[in-house]
């Protein structure tokens, strides 16, 4: 519906030589196509919008959008080129809000790039760049004027979350937990519900990777108490499945089954969560069946080794599914 509306507006703008409406139409269409994963179309319209810009700050913003599309396409070198242009133009204009945004965007792109690498050297280099840009973005937050304390809290909560995730990927776990805890504190004190749920979830995942199971479960429970389990069903499902992962990592398949059954029984889930809940439940049933078979085997039974190996392969889903 939105696509058809903005295509009509674009045609109207062309007929009437309305440059302002043409710019807005191209920008909106580019955003719609980006959201739909139609990246080539999105790039085409963002570049058309960029050609229509008269103000430097608008050109800067279009560079950011183009960079984000390239990042979605995993074309990281192109993404970084455009995002650095965004930073350069924003700095040239002295626009601190756009400078902060440019630094944070570069931090995100380097983070995603780092996770895509298979070699430690490239991965570490990109993640370190991500960390450096996020820190510069945080420093810029303190220089911003003319924004509300609420908006500043949102910026800082998201930055601390992202810095925490970057540090965790770099293997600096204690510092990661410290930043995630800071993000939680800011989110709670400013009633930032979406950010708080993300922070609790990521912190629980960090604890799970460390095999700090009690801390992971406690963090998940805090998050579950914070949400409305009757209306926020997709979030509740994701938390139950994360809880299931923790129990699998503890070899507590009975508790894992309870979690996965609860998630499976939830109604009105989106397609991704519905599929994930079904997958979890199927795997838990297989794990329980394997465990029962192992208990029936004699210690000298030649099948034991194969059963153990099968169970270990399936258990990998707890951290790799």
From TrEMBL:
GO terms for biological process: double-strand break repair via homologous recombination; replication fork processing. Gene3D superfamilies: Tetratricopeptide repeat domain. The lineage of its organism: Eukaryota, Metazoa, Ecdysozoa, Arthropoda, Hexapoda. SUPFAM superfamilies: TPR-like (SSF48452). It is found in: Nucleus. Pfam families: TPR_12 (PF13424), TPR_8 (PF13181). This is Tonsoku-like protein. Keywords: Nucleus, Repeat, TPR repeat. TPR repeats lie at residues 157-190.
């Amino acid at each position: 519906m939105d696509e058809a509306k903005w295509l009509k507006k674009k045609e109207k703008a062309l007929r009437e030589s309305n440059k302002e409406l043409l710019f807005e139409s191209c920008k909106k269409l580019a955003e719609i196509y980006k959201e739909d994963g139609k990246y080539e179309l999105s790039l085409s319209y963002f570049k058309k919008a960029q050609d229509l810009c008269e103000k430097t700050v608008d050109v800067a913003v279009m560079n950011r959008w183009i960079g984000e599309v390239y990042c979605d396409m995993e074309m990281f070198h192109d993404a970084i080129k455009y995002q650095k242009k965004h930073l350069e133009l924003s700095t040239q204009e002295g626009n601190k809000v756009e400078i902060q945004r440019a630094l944070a965007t570069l931090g995100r792109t380097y983070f995603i790039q780092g996770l895509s690498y298979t070699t430690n050297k490239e991965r570490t280099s990109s993640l370190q760049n991500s960390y450096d840009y996020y820190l510069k973005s945080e420093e810029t937050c303190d220089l911003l004027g003319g924004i509300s304390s609420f908006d500043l809290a949102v910026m800082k909560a998201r930055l601390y979350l992202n810095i925490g995730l970057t540090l965790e990927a770099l293997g600096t776990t204690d510092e990661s937990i410290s930043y995630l805890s800071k993000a939680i504190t800011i989110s709670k004190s400013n009633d930032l519900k979406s950010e708080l749920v993300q922070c609790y979830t990521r912190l629980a995942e960090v604890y799970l990777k460390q095999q700090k199971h009690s801390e992971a479960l406690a963090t998940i429970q805090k998050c579950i108490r914070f949400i409305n389990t009757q209306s926020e069903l997709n979030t509740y499902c994701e938390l139950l499945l994360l809880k299931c992962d923790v129990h699998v990592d503890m070899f507590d398949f009975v508790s894992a089954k309870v979690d996965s059954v609860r998630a499976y029984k939830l109604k009105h889930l989106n397609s991704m969560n519905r599929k994930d809940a079904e997958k979890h439940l199927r795997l838990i049933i297989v794990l329980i069946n394997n465990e029962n078979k192992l208990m029936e085997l004699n210690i000298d039974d030649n099948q034991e080794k194969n059963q153990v190996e099968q169970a270990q392969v399936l258990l990998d889903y707890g951290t790799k599914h």
